[in-house]
Each structure stands twice: as structure tokens, then as C-alpha cells.
Design goal:
four-stranded antiparallel β-sheet; alpha+beta; 3 domains; 388 residues; 21 strands; elongated; 23% strand; Adenine-n6-DNA-methyltransferase TaqI, Chain A, domain 2; Helix Hairpins
Length: 388
Amino acid sequence: MSYIEKLLEGVEVEWKSIGEVAEIYGGLTGKSKPDFGNGKAKYIPYKNIFGNIDVNFNYLEIVNISLGEKQNAIKYGDVLFTGSSEIAEEAGMSSSVTTNLKEEIYLNSFSFGLRFNSDIEMIPEFSKYLFRSRFMRKEIARTASGVTRYNISKARFKKLQIPIPPLSVQKEIVRILDTFTELTAELTAELTARKQQYSYYREELLSFEEGEVEWKTLGEVGEIKRGVAFTKKQAVMGKFPVVANAAEPISFHNESNRNGEFIVVARSGANAGLISYWNEELFLTDAFSIHPNASILNTKFAFFYLKNHQRKIHLMKRGSGVPHVRASDFEIYKIPIPPLEEQERIVSILDKFDTLTTSISEGLPKEIELRKKQYEYYRDLLLTFPKQ
């Protein structure tokens, strides 16, 4: 707080209600279904506002607006809000207009806009952070009411108190928070590039021609074991994860029926055929496990190969009701068998990419998550102003 106190030294932060400092306007009105997707006018869809703290003008949709028709066009500096959501905590999500517009752009029918009075100094780069801060989100959520869907009450919304610090303070806060968001954006771009690189090398390293290597069925080079039935009554606070039709445990149990290194194939449900790798003691239920012969087939190599063919494996699902895959189909599933040294080399390369692109404990996803938390911490710290 010492930094905030220093930043605010000798200056005053005004607190005013939204109704005092801004006007609220609505989105498109009088439109029917045929109007959307036709015409030449552009509008900002609900999802654009919900998913971005400032409007993404590369993601607009079109609507038919007749010549002379009265509709509210957005302006630079406006703050746009979603009007409702299925849960109160997600109602009234904000997105600021931080771009000077060269054409008229409209707002979707399920959102509303806030436009500050001409005598109020609030830069949009500051408002985009302010209205997404933890304390403002909490206050905005309180203005929503409903049962199956929560709608923002404009009357209550107008009574919300917002801080209006001097422009110099706004700009300094924006400078600091922009640094965090730019770093996160750079890391996200890096992650995308590494995922593409991972996909390329995985395809290259796991593609074999007939005659290049020996091919054998999984039943020839390993053992396939079916899981054991498990009921909710058996779920206890045990130490062994219960694994079924997902890549994460569904429960815990005080007994185990698998240990060591193996591959799990989800047997039924929406994830039927999902491949996952495990190297621990657990209880396997609605799935079956593949245990390669270590003298012939490296378990991690087999996992990477099967995971690379995940889409084809999902097509092996059967059944018109609850889809399922059969262990017998995997017993005859053919897999390449290069020399063990080559399998280990491939695993070493792909393991590094897998850790970098998917690990939440040491890869880029962890770094991105840490930066997001750091950004949220400083955002809330920098936007906590004293009230008189």
C-alpha cells in the first residue's frame, strides 16, 4: 500500500455514483432474426464483450440497419456491459472502447453501454482495468437478480460508486498493468508457437512407413487389463485415485488395483477412447489399461503414438446409446516397434515439448498462470482507493 499512498500523495480521489458521471444507453432495438447476418452495418456481439477487457474490433458481426434508423452507435471511451448471465457473478461483464472509430458500430441487443459525461476525465485504458477489478466485479454482481438467468438492474447499477483518480494517477496505473498484460500476451504467443512446434515434431517422429520398422499388435507386445466396477458407496477418503473415463481422478479409494507405468483407455461415455498416461498406484474402474512388455515397447513411446492418433481412436467408439470402445479392438491395434534406443530418443524429445506446453507445474502454462495471478494481485492493489 506504500506505493499507492506515494502515488496518491497530495491528490484526491473522488468517488461518485455512475448515475452522476455517465449516461447509460441500450443496444440494438426492433431487430428480428432475419436482420442479423445480413446488411452492411457492424455490431459488437455479446461474447466479444464478455471475453475481452477492451473490445476486439476484429471480431464483429453484421446486421441490417435501414437508412435513417435510430440506433445507438458506440464511441471511443464508452464502457460496454453484458446485460445478463446464467450466474450473478458473471453478469455485467465489461469491455472498454479503447479504439478511435472511423465508422459507426453498434451494440448487440443483450448488452448496454456507459458513456461518461464530457466533464469527467476517465481514460478508457484505465476504465478497462477498473471495471474488471475484484471490488468492482463484486459490486456489479450485486446489481443482478433473477432465478434461471440474472439480469442487471439499471437502477441499482446507476447507484454504484466508482473512484475517479487524477489523470496522472490513471496513466501510471495503466502503464504498470499494461506491462503485466503484455508479458502474459507474449508468453501466450510463445505457448502457441511451441504447441505448433510440438505437433510438427510429434508427427515427424511418430510417422513410419511399412517396411521401415516392425509392426505388431498391442496384444502381441503387451497385456490389456479391464478395470473393476466401482460404486459411489465405495468412494471414501482414501489415498488412491480412482481413474475412469477422464484424464483426472474421479474420486479416491482405500484400495488400488494398478501400480507402476501404464496407459489408460477410457471405456465409455463422451470420452470413450481417451488415452492417458499414468505412473502411480491407483484404482482403475470404467476403463482398461495397457501394459507394454518393457523389453519390446517403451510405455511412454506407446502413449505418444496412441495420443497422436487420438482422433482415429475416438472413431472406434460403438453404441447408439452410451458410446464405448472395446478392449478387444485394442488387442489387435497395430503399433510400430522401432529399436528401443530409438523409442527412448523419441520419448526424450517429445517429453520436453510435452512438459513445456502442458505442464502446470513447470512449463509455460504454469508461467502464464503465475503472471495472471500477479497481474490480478497488482490490479486489485492499484485500484483500491481510499474513500473519504
